[in-house]
Amino acid sequence: MDEREIIRLLDDAEATAGLCARADRERRRVHGDVVHLRAIVEFSNRCVGRCAYCGLRCDNDLVSRYDLSWETVIERAGCAAADGFRTIVLQSGEHPGLDVEGLGQTVAAIKERFDVAVTLSVGEWPREVYRAWREAGADRYLLKLEAADRELYGTLHPGMSWENRRRCIDDLLALGYETGSGNIVGLPGQTAEHLAADILDWARTPYDMISVSPLIPAAGTPLGDLDPPPIDRVLRVLALGRLVAPGAHMPSTTAMCVYGRQARARAMRSGANVIMIDYTPREAAAAYEIYERAACGSTESCRECTAATLDELGLSVGRGRGGGIRRR
Ligand code: SAH
Questions:
Q1: Model-level pTM?
Q2: Residue range 98-102: average pLDDT?
Q3: How many Å lie between the centroid of ligand 1 and the Cα of residue 265?
Q4: Do the beta carbons of residue 249 and residue 209 sit within 8 Å?
Q5: Of 124, 127, 44, 36, nearest in space to 88 by CA
Q6: CA distances in angstroms from 76 to 9, 71, 281, listed in the order given
Q7: Which of 230, 277, 216, 285 is nearest to 252 (CA)?
Q8: What is the mean pLDDT of residues 66-92?
Q9: Ligand 1 first shell, C-beta below 6 A
Q10: Separation of alpha carbons 196 and 102, rounded Å
Q11: Of all protein residues, whose CA lies closest to atom 19 belonging to ligand 1?
């Protein structure tokens, strides 16, 4: 698919059903009717960043900041492992005082005690830090490019550099991490050309994971007054992602829940093959407001809703770690 074709499809609301059906077939052909569940522990919401969309941005005073102890992180990973999860995702903001060694030891402890893959999502770091965590046992890393277009990236990320984000992604790939990227749909000033640039980046770069989420206007951020984009546009981006990167793992993000209960199912029928479930302890989860979340709340209710959704769709839960299958 070339750029012109991608732009045409992005702008064509009538194309949604056909495109999503194609992506659904592609997902089934490559990944089967198996969905991988990931458990996520958001261990700190401290952040030095000022990403225009993100509720964790440093000057958002509405947020009370927390750090989980490493013991708690390991304990939550243990709960998820006992519940059958084979991937644990550890996420935080761009933590100014992150205990780099402590995180490495935590990864090592989780890998030693439980039969799981560990994914980190803790932002931009020097290559040597990424190397140390990799050597401690981290298997995967999520660092969304957010926007492949430099100018659009620049308007949303004051004080950050697109080049450094790209450098981080290249380092992660070179260090042998299964690496995840992705974008946000519905950013102010974002055109079909911008989205096409994201999709072409996914086609070119050997990402193992690609996450497409709708913008959820978050309280206390400069974008707090916007509306989320139309769901069909988000689904078209997801479907195009599946078609250009068939082997990538693509979540039906929790952000989809902003469109109601059926939305996650629609994403699963538009190319997605992964669902993340929040294992952050409840009190902390309430403060990890990247954006306001659907009211469902608890880990248990999210698991139940997910199980019901997968059942309705005739999809089963993968038993393995659901690792990368893209050819490097
Ligand atoms: N600090 C880490 C983790 C960021 S939060 C990092 O920089 O990678 C994880 C993802 O949430 C981000 O990559 C961003 O794409 C998404 N996100 C943040 N705020 C959002 C919002 N308001 N709407 C939709 N997605 C959002």
A1: 0.96
A2: 98
A3: 22
A4: yes
A5: 36
A6: 42, 9, 8
A7: 277
A8: 98
A9: 53-54, 91, 93-94, 121, 123, 143-144, 146, 184, 213, 215-216, 218, 255, 290-291
A10: 39
A11: 54
